[in-house]
Amino acid sequence: MTFIVSPYSRIAVDGDQMERLAFLPPIPALDNTFGALLLGTFCGLILFGITLHQGYRYVRFPAYDKDSIIIKGTVATVLILETLHSALALHVCYFYLVKQYFDPLALLKGTWYVGLSGYAPELRD
Questions:
Q1: Is pTM, for the whole model, over 0.70?
Q2: What contacts 28, CB < 8 A, 6 or more positions away?
Q3: 47 phi and psi, to 5 degrees?
């Protein structure tokens, strides 16, 4: 019985399993790729909260009633688009870091939003 030691666990494998494991591709490092995506999403969500707060303050501002419909529409459009972008960025983080956890081959294909948003156009399906 041989033990494979990873940073997270110790796994016991026999000879046949060891031969099959030798042909698996190495697990790529996630700290310099998806770690950056996760930290960027966290920072983006903090800024999204600030944007929502500014939108709320704008609506409560006394001069809101005097502003033109174009300015009100622009503020509403920005808030809607930013909400959509934040939700889809969370979807990308969930897909790669939770749903496809410990599946190195799944990291090579992209979700539809990754190619659409321009994060990594080479990962389009």
A1: no
A2: 104, 107
A3: -65, -35
